[in-house]
Each structure stands twice: as C-alpha cells, then as structure tokens.
Amino acid sequence: MCGIMGYLGPEEVSGVVIGGLECLEYRGYDSAGIAVSDGRKIAISKCVGSVANLKAQMAEHPLSGRLGIGHTRWATHGGVTRENAHPHADPQGRVVLIHNGIIENFYELREELKGQGVHFSSETDTEVAVCLMATLYDGDPLAAIRKACARLRGAFAFVILFADVPDHFYCVRKGPPLVLAAPSDEAFCASDVTALLPYTNRILFMEDEEIAELSAGSIALYDFDGAPKDVRLSTVEWDASMTSKGIYPHFMLKEIEEQGSVLRRTLAGRVDGGVDLSAEFPFSDGDARRYRRVHLVACGTSYYASMVAGRLMDQFTGLDVRVETSSEYRYGHMICDAETVAVFISQSGETADTLAAARRARAGGARCLAVTNVVNSSLAREVGAVLELRAGPEIGVAATKTFMGQLAALSLLALWIGKRRGRLDRSDELRLTEELVRLPLKIESLVLQGNAIRDVAEHYMKVAGFLFIGRGLSCAIGMEGALKLKEISYIHAEAHAAGEMKHGPIAMLDVNLPVVAVVPRDLFYEKTLSNLQEARARNAPIVAIATEGDGEISRFASDCIFVPATEDELTPFLTIVPLQLFAYHLASLMGREIDRPRNLAKSVTVE
Ligand code: F6R
User: Fold this and answer.
1) Span from the CA of 30 to the centroid of ligand 1 (angstroms)
2) Do the Cβ atoms of 37 and 161 come closer than 8 Å?
3) Full-model pTM
4) How far, in Å, CA of 407 to CA of 305, rounded?
C-alpha cells in the first residue's frame, strides 16, 4: 500500500519520480505528492486524487532539482485531503518524509511533541514521524533516524530528505517493502521493483530493520543500531516491457488474456511424465510420511486458490488439511508443529497478514513453503522455500493471472506431496499432469469468447446484486468470481456453496437478483441443476458457466457461457476465465476505473 519513489542523479527529478509513481499507482491513489530539493531548500507539491492530477499541477508550477521523492497514498490515518497527502515536512522544512505503513503510538508521540510546541498541520501519523526526526536532528541524519526509529511502534517504510544534505537521501524499512538501486551516477528507491525496471534490474531488497543512505552511484546499509551491513544486489529477471499495457485498454484484460502462457510457464520443468517439485520443495521419504497436517494460508484471491488446493490435498495427500485466511490463522489455536506442512500463498509476498501468519508457523516448527510471484519478496525471504508462480508482474489491482499461476502451482504441490507420501495413484498423476499441459490451449480458446461474454454482461448492467453458487471446487470459483465482480464493478455479490442456498440466501431470490452458477459437468452437476431449478422457480435470472456440449443447461439458464471439457479436478482453471471476463466487461460497460478500483491497493502491507 502506498507507492514510493525516490531519485538522485543527473536527470530532472520530477520526470523520473512522476514516471515511477505512475508505475506504482496500483498501490494507492487517494492522493499524490512530490518533494524536490534544489540544493538549498525542499519544495513540495501535492494534491488529492491521482498522479495525473499531480502531473497537471506540476505542469503549471514546475519544481526543478536533481534529488526528489514522491508518493501515492492509500489513506490510513486521516481523510483524503491535500493536507494529509505526502510528503510531510516539519514546520521549519528541515526534514521531509514519505511513509508507507502505520505508526501505532503516533497519538502519544503527537501529544508529547505538541507539549514541546510542535504545531501539526495534518491528521497523519506520518507527520508525527517527520517532526520527531526533526527534533532529534543535530546535523547527523543517520543518528536522528536511528533515535526516531527506536521510539516508533508499528510498521513503516520511510524515505527521508534533509534540506541541508542535498546529495543524499535515506530509506528505512520496518515492515513494508522498499527496493533500492544505484546504477552509475544515480540512486533510486521504490516500494516495488516494477518502478525501477526502466533503469536497472540490479536491485537491493531491503530487509526489516535496515537504514540505507543513498548518494549518486552508492548505497550504504546499516542496522537499527548503526552497524554497517553488506549491500546485497540481486538481478531481477523481469524487464520493463512486462509492465506495459501494450495494445490493451486495461492491464486487467491483458492479464486475463495472458493466462494460457502463464500456465505454460508455471508448469515448465515441473511436469514431465508426472510431477516433480524436488528442486523447490524437497523432502525425504521419512519426512513425507511423518507429516500429519497441511495448512494453506492466504488472503483474498490467494485464499480462494487455496480453497481449490485444499480439496485436491484432501483427495491426494491423506493429510489433515486446513485452509485458513491469514488474519485468522495468526491468532488461531490450531496445532502447527514439526508434523505440519504450512503453505503461505501470496502473489505479492508482501501481505502483512500472511507474513505474520508465516512467522507464527515458523515459531511452531512447521515445515514452511511460500507460493508467490515475487521470489525476492518478504514472504519468500521469511519462509526460505519458494514455489514461484512465474506469472510476470501483475499490475491490475484485481488479481487474475496470478490466480491461474496459484491454481497450477498448488495443484502440482498437492500431487507432489501425495506422490511422496505414496497416496497418489500413478494413473491419476498421469491423467492430471497430461491434462494440465493441454489446458493453456483451452484457456486461449476461452479468451476468444470475450465479445460474447461482453454481450452477456450487457444484460446485467442495471442489477443491484448477484448471487454466485457452485459445489466442490466450483464453490471456491464462485467466491473468486464474486470477489472479482465486487472489486471492480462495486456491485454487491455474495457467493455460497450451492447446497447452502436453501438454508437462507434463497430468501433474496426474485426476478431482480441474478444467480451466477458455476456448473461444469462434474460429480456435482445434477445436484447443482436441482439448485438452479429452485432459483428458477423464484424467477431469478440465471447465468450458467457450463461445459461445452451440455444441452440441458439452457433449459435452466437465461445466459450460458461454455468452457471446454476437462478433468473434474481441473475445472477451476477454465471456469474462472469467463467469470473474470464477465466482471471485467460489466465494470467496463459501467465506466469503472478497472485497474484502480476505489479503496483497494495491490499490496496490502498493513494488518
Ligand atoms: C483480489 C486481490 C486481493 C489479494 C489479497 C492477497 O483481486 O487482489 O484479494 O488477493 O490482498 O494478496 P496477495 O496474494 O498479494 O497476498
């Protein structure tokens, strides 16, 4: 949450920083701001709304310099106002700072500073941090930062300018991510690597409780006690072309359409005459048999991918399977010990709830694995063992292609654990892995139905809500389909196991509440059809996601979208695609800000 960009170098800073903020806007878009040092003093420009507003403001009142920092905000403390927008400065303008995170003891610090005569002009916790640093500053930036950090509780990533130190800037990480780079005579920082890819792929991923001092071409790194640390640069495999929209109107549509190739990449080298994850998640036969439990822990879309995986784990591993949201797992009491395999699923690898849950499992002695799209993320580093999604950078706030990568990685994991425990039949292994490699082509045929799905969406532009239903794996897909719709169209949608409809939700059904049914030809088909009869009897319009060749479904449904036939266990790979497209087209017809839905941010780094 919150996008951060900093630059020092020969280029005009406003162009570089605003370019970076545009790239990071998926992290927050309540307000935007920039601070530029002209070598003597620091000037600030900020506004409510998007980076485009800031750009327009800067065109009228340009700021010029070679050192600057910028921020896009996802509001926590204080409303969406210009005063609360970052950067913040102390009243004398000696220190200027941008922040991602939450300072938990801000109120008591604010009162203390007020007692010392400090005047505050915003409601933010961030202004408290900058004023604290300013009161502790006596010409030694690192000492002031260290002393301030010792007093702050909570999670924070800061980038800090000192007006009288115009050739350096400073970064602090305790919680939310920050990445750094210092190619030739420049220095950069950002909250996400995508903003730095146009300049370099040699990146330093800051660890928790580190302070960095950046100058042209150089990074010095310290711990919170001031001890120097090694500068660890990693080479990132992504490149800048992967973060462009190309011919697409929205990143979300591009990412939906990429899903066939994402699946190919996720499977590559892991499926060949069976499944083999020994390079990523090796364990001995003894270990494999010793495990008793598997926990799948995640948030949001990643949680729904885990629900699918949980069923496959039930079927193939013989382990006691728990699927839990990270925010609940963290405070739960389930056994989590050396006989537990704990899998943490997060596309970003930065979700605060999931990181906290992983720490709990590690403390209990569980065997941990991160399933993530970002190999250098905090989660990957926290957990050690990583199963990478290989989806490429996902920019649309609503997750789509990383969900596909998660389905693939987690299905392979279920098969792999089952195989190592001697619980997976060879015939099942071949049946499923051979079909997995056929799925990309089927997905590619599905995305060609975009226009037909748009026509279906057009029928529902005026409705106030939807009920999604499905059974088994399709129940999780209904939930993910409803989430996509809510996120980008803001239409109310709730999802239930189809068998639960009669226990309550059916009361809502009438001609005004469409039911979206995920009803592939699987084990549950007939049962779900009965539920559709019940919905139809209450005059609810029905949109069915069904299997090609199903001649019966059109008797029940007002609109049918067909997916190719596949193995029962793999239907989610196909049924999700029309639901993503349905949400996309409905939101697009309604004129929504698809890649930047209100109130959401891509990487949720606060609890
Ligand atoms: C949904 C969405 C969110 C994320 C959730 C977890 O489209 O993007 O629900 O899935 O915030 O994020 P990660 O997977 O990064 O931990």
Assistant:
1) 19
2) yes
3) 0.89
4) 6
Phi, psi at 40, each rounded to 5° = -120, -45
Copy the structure tokens of residue 246: 């190309």
Helix (H) or strand (E) holding 333: none
Residue 280 has a CB neighbour count (10 Å cut-off) of: 18
Burial group, residue 132, by CB count within 10 angstroms (0-12, 13-18, 19+) = buried
State pLDDT tens for residues 170-208.
999 998 999 999 999 999 999 999 999 999 999 999 999
**273 phi/psi in degrees, rounded to 5:** 60, 35
| Ligand 1: centre distance to CA 596 (Å) | 14
Angle between helices 125-136 and 106-115 (to 10 degrees): 50
**What's the distance, Cα to Cα, between the start and end of the chain in Å?**
11
- With 0-12 / 13-18 / 19 or more C-beta atoms within 10 angstroms meaning exposed / middle / buried, residue 443 is buried
Separation CA 281–CA 283 (nearest Å): 7
Mean pLDDT of 430-440: 98
Contact criterion met (CB below 8 Å) for 191 and 86: no
Pairing of strands 492-497, 465-470: parallel
Residue 306 banded pLDDT, cuts 50, 70, 90 = very high
DSSP readout, 92-145? Answer: TSSEEEEEEEEETTHHHHHHHHHHTT----SS-HHHHHHHHHHHH-SS-HHHHH
Degrees, nearest 5: CA angle 589-590-592: 110
Ligand 1 atom nearest to 604, measured from its CA: 11
CA pair distance 384, 378, nearest whole angstrom: 10
Distance 300 CA to ligand 1 centre (A): 5
Query: d(Cα 93, Cα 324) in Å, to the nearest integer?
Result: 47
Nearest residue to 264 via CA among 371, 397, 426, 392: 392
Tokens of 525: 């088909």
> Could you tell me if 182 and 188 are in contact, meaning their C-beta atoms sit under 8 angstroms apart?
yes
Residues of the chain with pLDDT > 70: what percent? 100
Q: How many residues are recorded in the chain?
A: 607
Residue 529, pLDDT score? 95
What would you measure as the largest C-alpha separation in the chain, in angstroms?
79
Beta carbons of 14 and 384 less than 8 angstroms apart: no
What residues form DSSP beta bridges with 205?
179
Ligand 1 surroundings by CB, under 6 angstroms: 299-302, 346-348, 351, 354, 398-399, 483, 487, 604
Question: Which of 304, 325, 346 maximizes ligand 1 atoms within 8 Å of its Cβ, making it the mutation to test the pocket?
Answer: 346
Annotated catalytic residue 189 = no
Do the bridges between strand 340-346 and strand 293-298 make them parallel or antiparallel, or are there none, so unpaired?
A: parallel
2 is catalytic: yes
In the block, which residue shows the tokens 């970003």?
348
Read off the pLDDT of residues 453-496 as tens digits, 9 standing for 90 and up: 999 999 999 999 999 999 999 999 999 999 999 999 999 999 99
Q: Structural domains in the chain?
A: 3-240 (3.60.20.10), 251-444 (3.40.50.10490), 450-589 (3.40.50.10490)
Task: Tell me which residue has its CA closest to atom 13 in ligand 1.
Answer: 346
HSE-CB at 464 with a 13 A cutoff on CA atoms is 6
Ligand 1: nearest atom to the Cα of 348: 15
